[in-house]
Amino acid sequence: MIDHEVRTHKSSENLAREDQLAWKIAEVASDPTPVEPEVTEMVINRVIDNAAVAAASVNRSAPTHAREQAQAHPYTPGATIFGLPLADRFSPEWAAWANGVAVRELDFHDTFLAAEYSHPGDNIPPVLAVAQHMGIAGPDLINGIATGYEIQVDLVKGMSLHEHKIDHVAHLGPSAAAGIGAMLHLPTEVTFQAIQQALHVTTATRQSRKGEISSWKAHAPAFAGKMAVEAVDRAMRGEGAPNPIYEGEDGVIAWILSGPDARYTIPLPAKGEAKRAILDTYTKEHSAEYQAQALIDLARKLGGEIEDLSTIKRIVIHTSHHTHNVIGTGANDPQKMDPKASRETLDHSIMYIFAVALEDRGWHHEDSYSPERAGRPETVALWHKIETTEDPEWTRRYHSTDPNEKAFGGRVEIEFEDGSTLTDEIAVADAHPLGARPFVRANYVEKFRTLSEGILTEAEANRFLDLAENLESLDAAGVGQLSFAVEGLKHSGSKGIF
């Protein structure tokens, strides 16, 4: 890996494009270095993972509305949309939109956390949609997905967005554009322009994840993927982009991030170096914000050790800055303590999540968020006894680059009415690569079968899994079938402009 220093340059400096971050990203995309076998295996795992969570969400409101919007844009050859008949094809940017919302709706697919936060599986819908439309076979699709992961992870390692209240999808637009460029073997110049365009139109504030969180949380990455598809299309036609988008004196670093004097270090693979960043990412066993994963595992363990939860006086979760300030009491969001809050808000309340997981000794992607579950008096009482506090050591471990130190959990102190206490801690989720039960192919397949049960027929589930697990050998026709159809798919009956 090569560390690239990135800073603002005055227009009078006339920064050469070869010295710009967007160009260096485009060079990684256009590097033909083969994808390594273990990366291919993980790409397949994440294709399965994305489809699993999309199947579970396919009848929910946001994916349904996004799908109905996309259905107004049929196209030939086009791309498939999760849930619809495979013969139905739609314009690829709208397929990326609909599938992106379905994948993101339950907050249940993969994650990578460093200087910034990300769900790099969000790269798959736009790359796959373009692959189906353009007649791309399995190996090139795998390269495109691996590239999207590589670029998003590398940006996340070196450039914080949330520090300036910018949503993390600002890294997704460029990464998806790079992935599409790699898959299509586009010239570096074309991908360079697409990356800049995609960043320019996908920079938005983090209010989508603050206060009363709405369904836009699921739409935001889908929008970034859709914009990436359109950016590549424009660049392929010869259209340019704001330049230099990162380093310009009126660019992203100068006015959106840390300002003209800031320095960022972005690691990128050297020429001829394999793209392996997907191996640094991790998926979710539970449908909740990633910082909740380990704490759910700890709560289900502690739930079996406490005979009477009503005897609990107070619970304090000592954790990282991010967990405390984004999903903990440090956020100062009263909605996180409200039994009538939206699913999206409860998903970002570790107080609620820990209470339910402690009571139920587990977590369910639907039942744990139901209004009935959130409104139980005993749950509300326990929930309101929970608080978080930042512990500098957990914050340090959260940001550590040493995989043996890195941690996304915390220490839980439970005080009982009789004055006794119970303390336990967990560093990483059970499903994490360094956890108690790391996810392997069998776990991804089991997750797909569990989440698609009652939604897909057994034959349809088997058909999809057979294609996905053989992705490396699929021809264009096989890639074109890499979706699933749902019998009796629900429609909302709503009407917008389209």
TrEMBL record:
Domain of life of the organism encoding this protein: Bacteria
Stretches assigned to the MmgE/PrpD C-terminal domain: 286-472
MmgE/PrpD N-terminal domain boundaries: 20-263
Protein family membership: Belongs to the PrpD family.
PANTHER family per the UniProt record, alphabetical: 2-METHYLCITRATE DEHYDRATASE (PTHR16943:SF8), 2-METHYLCITRATE DEHYDRATASE-RELATED (PTHR16943)
Protein name (record): MmgE/PrpD family protein
Species of provenance: Brevibacterium ammoniilyticum
Source organism phylogeny: Bacteria, Bacillati, Actinomycetota, Actinomycetes, Micrococcales
